[in-house]
Design a protein that fits this description.
- Keywords: Activator, DNA-binding, Transcription, Transcription regulation.
- The protein has helices at residues 5-17, 20-27, 31-45, 61-88, 101-104, 107-116, 131-140, 200-212, 225-233, 243-247, 279-293, and strands spanning 50-53, 56-59, 94-99, 123-128, 145-149, 157-165, 167-171, 191-195, 217-222, 239-241, 254-257, 264-272.
- It is α/β, with parallel strands linked by helices.
- It has a five-stranded mixed beta sheet with strand order 4-3-5-12-6, sandwiched between helices. It has a three-stranded antiparallel beta sheet with strand order 10-7-11. Strands 1-2 form a two-stranded antiparallel ribbon.
- A hairpin with a 2-residue loop joins strand 1 (50-53) and strand 2.
- The chain is globular and about 65 Å long.
- The mean pLDDT is 90.
């Protein structure tokens, strides 16, 4: 089967934007052109890729699977195009970094901005994603440096592991705030806002309650620490949260306490074994490691 890149690019744009009009504007081609490319792709693959709903194109399950494969290809060519522009404009280099969402709302933008102050001609490519996708991006060369949660899925990285201690966030007016340290016994049947059951913090918190012989009540399941904290701020329960999300939230409405036994998160700063880092990448890699080390459990005593 010979699929053309333009067909995949049109499909990718429609999934991301949701309308043919928006996809056409993004790619700079006509709406009929986009529709024709999509029709060609569906005909060649013999798959129905979209359903129409209230003026939008809703991807079918088959489209969702295809998108996961196409996403890396399309973004990869975008990076190639950006690299060509950088060379044409004699840019000083491109910083290519990816991190999980927990680091993307405060720490990484501030760190990159500080790093860029003395490098005004540096171009920056930064994305936040789930850790498995970040590993794929670094392995394929789309990004030089990645920060991800353990475990590592591939044996393709040079990795520096950093263990970070989480804290328990509780509503500001909660009676639990009178305690200096909170334990499973003190939190029996207290409603918890939690990450999904596959997340490391979920498993380790569940284990702590099980070992203590105490009932653990989970009320809300979500997929971002920022969401966990938002529910805590609304008074819906308590939540185990990473220090990055806590340090860069300025809305208030919560307090934190250590949780015992300690629930650690294991992060890795990864680079590809197959490709040496650029000079710019090496400099940022050192800066990033030094910053993350201040959050390490050992550094916090």
């Amino acid at each position: 089967m010979s699929l053309r890149f333009r067909q995949l690019q049109a499909f990718h744009a429609i999934v991301e934007i949701g309308t043919v009009t928006g996809a056409a504007e993004q790619l700079g081609i006509s709406q009929p052109g986009i529709s024709n490319l999509l029709a060609q792709l569906e005909r060649q693959t013999r798959l129905k890729l979209f359903e129409r709903s209230k003026g939008r194109l809703v991807p079918t399950p088959e489209a969702g699977v295809l998108y996961q494969e196409v996403d890396t290809v399309v973004r990869g060519l975008d990076h190639v195009g950006q690299a060509v522009l950088d060379l044409q404009n004699k840019q000083a280099g491109q910083l290519q970094v990816a991190s999980p969402h927990a680091l993307s709302f405060g720490l990484m933008p501030k760190l990159i901005a500080r790093f860029a102050q003395e490098r005004p001609d540096m171009s920056i490519s930064f994305q936040s994603q789930y850790s498995t996708k970040i590993q794929e991006w670094v392995m394929s060369g789309l990004f030089e440096i990645g920060v991800c949660e353990m475990p590592l899925t591939y044996d393709a990285f040079d990795a520096r592991i950093i263990h970070v201690e989480t804290l328990l966030a509780i509503p500001q007016d909660s009676p639990l705030a009178r305690h200096d340290v909170l334990t499973p016994q003190l939190l029996e049947n207290e409603p918890f806002i939690v990450m999904g059951p596959d997340h490391l913090t979920h498993r380790r918190t569940r284990e702590a309650f099980s070992n203590a012989g105490v009932a653990w009540r989970t009320r809300v399941h979500t997929h971002l620490f920022k969401n966990v904290l938002s529910f805590v701020q609304e008074g819906m329960g308590v939540g185990i949260i990473d220090p990055f999300s806590l340090n860069f939230d300025f809305e208030g409405g919560f307090v934190t306490r250590p949780f015992q036994p300690t629930v650690l998160m294991d992060f890795a700063v990864i680079t590809s074994k197959a490709r040496p880092l650029s000079a710019l990448g090496k400099q940022f890699h050192e800066t990033l490691l030094a910053e993350l080390q201040t959050y390490a459990a050992s550094a916090r005593g």
